[in-house]
Each structure stands twice: as C-alpha cells, then as structure tokens.
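Q: Structure tokens for this one, please.
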Amino acid sequence: MWFRPRRGAPTETGRLEAFSDGVFAVAITLLALDLARIHADEGATPPVTLFESLATQWPTLLAFAGAFAFVGIAWTNHHNVLMRVKSVSRSLNGANLVLLAGIVVVPWATSNLAEALGTPGAEAGRQAILLYAAVTMAGSVTWGLLFHVLASSPELLGDPAHVRGFMTDRAASAIGIGTTAGAAAIGWFVSPILATALLALLPLIYAVGSEGFERTDGRAAEPT
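A: Here is the predicted structure, written as tokens:
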C-alpha cells in the first residue's frame, strides 16, 4: 500500500487574485522610495539644487521607469492569465507564490541598481546590473513555471482549449531569459547604464505578449 499527500479539491480564484493584487500594489509602490535620492541639499558644500540633483541622479529615474514597467506589465499579464482560470489547485497556488516572490524582490534589486548607477566608478554598476538582471531572469523562469502548471492542468481552465496557448506562452518565456542574459553581458562588458536602458525596454516584449500568442497563416483577414 502506498500513500501520498492529499491534493485537495480545487478552490475558487478570488483569494488568489486578491492576494496577488496586493503584492503587486505594494511592490510597485516601494519602487518610488528610491526617488527620495533626488532632492535639493542646501547644507552640502557647495549647495545642491533640485535640478542639479536631478541631473546627477537621472539613472535613478531610468531604473525606476524600467522596474515600474516590469511590475506594471507583469500585473497586466497576471490578470489576463487568471481571466482564463476557473479554479486553483495547490500546484497553481504554489507556482503563483513563486512568481510573487520574484516580484517582491524587484524593489530591492532596483534600489541597489539606482544607488550604484549614481556612484562614481563602473564596478558597483556592473555588480548591480547583474543582480537586477538575475532578478529579471528569475521572473521569466517563474512565468514559465506558471504557464507549465496551466498547460498541464486543463481542468483548471474555463476553456480547455487555452492549454495550447499556455504551452506557447511557456516556450515564449525563454525569450525573456535570453534577452535578459544578453543585456547582463552588455552591462558587464560595455556599460551598466546601457544595459539598464535595454532592460527598461524588455517589458515591451511582455506587453506584446500580454494577451498570449496564437498561430497565424500569414494571410490578411477577410473584410466584413
């Protein structure tokens, strides 16, 4: 006789959605804390005006913009995924928690990057961009895990036909991993600021895929 843990019956999606939305909201709010580095300092020698601070700390804005887009588009994609889910299993709940773990470390990685880019010398920036890229890459892996669970569990979907779409999305998550690895190499060997700009554009890929991917035969749609 063999024993295994009880899997439990699937549950409704409401709690998972509410909890996830809260995590996304906190993460994207924490990103704004780094903007406190941009301020006037009358006690400095010589005094620093707000515009002077902005001119020297502009990489902080670049890091903020990229991270804000990353978290914001991740939230949009997460919403679109759950629109196709009718019930939650333990495996789906676990995959979702792993994904959220990748989201909550984005403010930490962004804070390190913003501080490093505002510090003279390239070494700090090179290390910080690798950390940020690692967090971004881990995020792509967690999305792949979520898509894998959904592609393997048609009973959780409102329409089992969505399995094919999640299989395609799972493969497409490799695009984010490869692009992030390339940006990290540019940050280490060429310029951390250039890599930060490239990673700030990376969420555009996720935005394009926010509705998933589908096959097309390349023919123009028939007029109606």
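A few notes: The chain has a mean pLDDT of 86. Residues 123-151 form the longest helix (29 residues).
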